[in-house]
Amino acid sequence: MDDLKKWPEIEKAASEKRRELVLQGPTVDKRVSSDGGLTSAIYTLKLLNYLEVSQCPSLTEIHEDIQHLTNLQSLILCRNKLASIPDVIGNLKSLKVLDLSVNNLSVLPEGITQLKELNTFNVSCNNLELLPEGLSHCTKLSTINISKNRITSFPADFYSDRLDLLSSLVASDNCFEELSGDIHMLPALKVLDLSNNKLREIPSDLSDCPKLKEINFKGNKLNDKRLEKMVNGCQTKSILDYLRGKGKGRQGEDGGEADGGRSADKRKKQQQRKKKEKVADEQDEVEELNKMVVRVLHVSDTSTALTVQVSAEVKDVRPYLVCCVVRGMNLKCGNGLKRFLVAQTKLHDDMCGKRTTATIATHDMQLLKGPLTYDVKPPTQLKIVALGRKEMTAIELIRHLELEADELRKQKKRQNVTGLHKYLQLLKGKSLYPCLVDAEGHVISFPPITNSEKTKIKKTTKELFLEVTSATSLQTCKDVMDALIVKMAELNKFTAEHQEETGSDGEGGGPPESASGTETSSELIVQQVRTVDQDGNLKVVYPSKTDLSQHISNLTVIW
């Protein structure tokens, strides 16, 4: 029987019924090495929808019991030394993301072709020579990365209109000698990278891909030297126009008067193709106009990543918390800040049930001193400089708020309690109150009541620290945070499209500055934040690859 004391993350995931588990790095690798693999206990966590085991060179295989984790939506097994993957992986019918990159795989199981929900497939940096036949059965595939292998060709059934969602195909640094003209049968293809292969020709049919926007054939010794020069200059439109011209020239050579009927058919097909291209271009224009981009920065990609430690005592008060850092939110232009605060209030009123279900708090990241601690304090000892107030204890603050709520009810002549009354009642009878504390011991947030004036966001705020807390569930926190980030992306896009004067809503000080002449990007960057327990074991990381999911058609999430 496995000693779970060696695997506290798994023990905690089981006891707390967690849906995410991340195991990575030297500490985990040492355990894998001493145990001869992953503990079998990991395969009993049937509630998991996100599992990541990475950066463990001692991990060479995954047991067939992986098939029991039928709720998995994301399986990340990158940067290990895996030599094989069991065929039973095909039983993970809910799997959307499969990352097997940077391992020692020389063959892939056919079971992968049974993953009908698979959206993202990454097997880059392995020793593969073949892809399994039947990948076209994975009809929801959107992104494939097979770069840095030894693959010589795509499977025979790969060029199929069944893969009508496949938009990105990265196959650089392989051994491809030929690209079939049937590539045009992938109708949604936007990005194609076959750089650093052994191609001699690029088929003219590639120009028939209606949505193709970005191609890379650098590093191939093409027979057509003019085309090779264009390829090395990465001129996608010029390359496609050139290929289209070559296709027409070939038709002329093969035709002649005796083939007039066939030429007429080809002209008809060309006209149909042009119509399709026009429709596709119009659709792309609409997509570009509506597109909102959120780029996720992994917690390991920055040395200054913020960590939040959660004390055990919050479990009985307000146990659930997710956090992240957002950059690129333009609060300076026009009414940007006001619109953001109004949107936050609306989320509080609607999705958060007037703060009774969950509470959002926003902080100016530059005013925070980490690491942060999510803790509890007695009401008489918890002191905070609440928004728009002087420093007082939690008990004093609640007394003030109750008096204000009563006065508001009298003014409006209401018999029932107000929204303010409702969330004040959430802490009634509690001997300890939840709070988020910075490295200097200052309380910066007192959920669900208020956050601190010290970390208040302003027009000049460039980085925001977001927190969502709840007594209901972790998923509630994530859903609210998802909705908040999507709303921020919408607002940022609106600000970028509408040129407004800086400071026009009366905040920020100084004279208004014209926004014209300044290029404003609407892209948001979301930095992951880890929440850990008192022993440093991971509780949750947000966002994970199951967050900010594909349900919003005009939201592009870049990992």
Tally of helical runs: 9
Distance between the termini: 38 Å
What is the typical, i.e. mean, pLDDT?
82
Q: Indicate the overall shape.
A: globular
Our Rg estimate from Cα atoms comes to: 28 Å
- Strand residues, percent: 15-25%
Low-confidence region ranges: 250-260, 285-289, 415-419, 504-519
Descriptive keywords:
globular, 23 strands, 559 residues, alpha/beta
Describe, in plain words, how this protein is organized in 3D:
The chain is an alpha/beta fold and 559 residues long. Helices cover 25% and strands 19% of the residues. It contains nine helices and 23 strands. The strands form three sheets. Strands 10, 11, 12, 13, 14, 17, 18, 19, 20, 21, 22 and 23 form a twelve-stranded mixed beta sheet that branches. A nine-stranded parallel beta sheet has the order 1-2-3-4-5-6-7-8-9. A two-stranded antiparallel ribbon has the order 15-16. The longest helix is centred in the middle third of the chain and has 31 residues. About 7% of the residues have low confidence.
SSE blueprint:
Blueprint: H1 8-15, E1 20-24, H2 26-35, E2 50-54, E3 74-76, E4 97-99, E5 120-122, E6 143-145, E7 168-170, E8 191-193, E9 214-216, H3 225-232, H4 236-254, H5 260-290, E10 292-297, E11 307-310, E12 320-327, H6 336-349, E13 359-364, E14 372-377, E15 383-385, E16 391-393, H7 394-411, H8 419-424, E17 433-437, E18 443-446, E19 450-451, E20 463-470, H9 474-497, E21 524-532, E22 538-542, E23 555-558
Parallel strand pairs: 1-2, 2-3, 3-4, 4-5, 5-6, 6-7, 7-8, 8-9, 10-21, 10-23, 11-14, 11-21
Antiparallel strand pairs: 12-20, 12-21, 13-20, 14-17, 15-16, 17-18, 18-19, 21-22
Helix pairs in contact: 6-9
